[in-house]
Amino acid sequence: MKNLKLYLIIIPLFAVLSIIGCKSNPSSYNPVGDQNNIPWSRITSGKIAYSQQVITDQIINFLFEIDSGTKQLKVLNRNTLYQFKYLTWSSDASKITFVDYDNSGTYLQLFNIDSNGTNITNIYPDTASHSYPSWSRNGRLAYWSNSYSFPEGISIDGTAFFNDKVCNLSRAAWSPDGKYLVVSMRDSTTQGALYKVYLSNKTYTPLLEGTGIDSTNGSLVIYDEPQFSPDGTQIVFAKWGYSLGNQSEIWIMNADGSNLRRITSGNYDFNPVWSPDGTEILFERYGTPDNLFIVNADGSNLAQVTQNGGGYPSWTK
To answer: Domain span at residue 116?
Structure first.
């Protein structure tokens, strides 16, 4: 997954993404339960969705839910057709939106699955690629889109919205009031800066500027995957680049771009999401396999959440 992330930001060629489309029934294999190893004292509210892919005699895709109320790890869905990528809970937590290819294996598409793990539907069928969905607090859906007529931009609720500047394959963060998005964008001077994009007039202003590519000393730095804290005062994001030893770190800043703080370092950490109370950050760490980790919002008290694989987390209240 680490190399995939690098490919998609620098050269967004979606043919490099593989899709497993086996339609045979899943085998009787059950993954080793992580329930007893989950640090329940750290997961005190809401529900966490995450995915896992298991390879036995075939490839099986699992959608899991960690329920803080019942202290249970549930399998919401298991199948050999859909990979559950870039998960995000809807604003009312009635469904989970995820990304996978269409039936032809040509275009990345958005799908909804009910919160009980049933009724998978393609919500915006299109001859374009859509990825990284993000729900606003009032029920609007923003996502990255790419097509010949609308290259590398942000769409909202099924309609192309913004591509005045090239948008990276990354989550767009809704402001708490729904008036603007924080988007990772690139141009001739940067490969990944964070900008505010206002919904009313599509104007954009820099929030956190990155650095450009220098093939001599590898001074690439990219900021992406932003998400606002529940109270709207802070933004968590991933920072990665050659200058970090080709690693990725989790950072937090104030909503106005000030007071930057590094939360993790020394690994390839990405896909950060806030806990419902804003005190914890859940994220994915690259490994064999990738796993989920949790850390306090001040960078202290790191703990591993999954032991046998997990990715694309989303946390709802």
So the answer is: 2-316
